[in-house]
Amino acid sequence: RDSGKMLFKGSEVDFGSPKEALKVGICIVPQVLELVSSFTVAENIALGMEPKKMLGAFIDRQRRDESIMEIIEKTGLDVPLSVTVGELAIGVQQRVEILKALYSGAEVLILDEPTSSLVPNEADQLFQVLRNLKSMGKSIIFISHKLREVFDIADRITVIRNGKTSNPLQVLDTNPEEISNLMFPDGKSRTLETDQMKAFERSNDVVLKIERLVVKDLQGISAIDDVSLTLRKSEILGIAGVSGNGQKEFAEAIIGLREIHSGRLTIFGKDITKSQITTRRSLGITYIPDDRKGTATISSATVTENVMLGDHSLSTSKMGGLVKWKQYRNYCSKLCEEFHISLPGNNTELNAGKLSGGNLQKLVLAREFSRNPKVVVLFQPTQGLDISTTQYVYQRIHELAVSGTAILLISMDLDEILRISDRILVIFKGKLHGDFYPEDISKRELGLYMSGVKNKIVGQNQ
Predict the structure, then answer these.
(1) Chain Cα centroid distance, residue 18
(2) Domains of the chain with bracketed CATH
């Protein structure tokens, strides 16, 4: 904190860490859940706060479980304590995070984009839980870019724009249009109408074909089980699914980061099932992973160096293998300008780790989209981004598709899938279901497929 002050229950506070905030009862439920998948629900909830037996050397599991059950009975957050977290759906895992906060004695809960990974029925259940917590006297900060949800659950709304907050408004005294105007005072939300997103002819030219693909996870279990699909030129094919249903293994198998156990993968008819990553990239396949900080970029490297990644032929001279720094800095500056990447002082030698999440994602898009890709695999491309940056990403995806690129969009965001996809498949427990056009399926029905309530296995000719 550089300036200003923060009051909690009338007294000024200055927290040096989340642990200090937790001591007085303030806890955040993060967008990316921080649970140990191999631990049980009870072990996760009480982690670091376990009650000890008389001698202090052993955990008093009975007392721990009784304390957790008392919270469950009060809140309605029903979760089986003995099940390992890795076996639970994302919506149930989120309940574990909330129980963990309540077990620690939290009086103020900060929820960061809590519905980003939930299907509609799970979001409805979450809202009921939040209403129960409110009735118990808990205070909740609900951070979201989804106005419908904000108006559904909040009592007051504050808009944060460019690091500054607006005066809070009572929900009953405002409307979505007024809040939107506060978010975009210049009237430019950079939204693309659905008709504009679809304003080009679908092609029948097959670019990528996957036949009976099987991919194993690290335990040797099939994460992707007998999956087949075709991806056509200029098509945006959406793969909807709740996290943990094989999306990561699927994306990594296509780009070459994970071994294909069986099946066949072709691009323009060329078999690349056993090909190395470099071969696949040379044929025009590129990947935007969900982890922009840990996987897509190197935080300690400069913006220029991050733009160079995977492009060694352009970044080095033919003689001696020396990096052509001046040429690349100029190229990087042009990309930053074209993709509206904000750099302090236009300094491309700034470490990428100092960029905001939105600017970092635009940097990854700039690097990959500028290389004339034929197939782009997008995995959660707008996760954690603000509305304006999200709209910008959609615009660039749309422009790339119009230019002829085939796009595989893997996302847990139903609004995103329905809005920009030409065709939609659902992934559940490693299998593909459905095959819908966005105009032919509702958000709620799509959520039923994502949660496994409905199923319709995709045939081999999709």
Answers:
(1) 23
(2) 6-154 (3.40.50.300), 190-284+372-462 (3.40.50.300), 296-370 (no CATH)
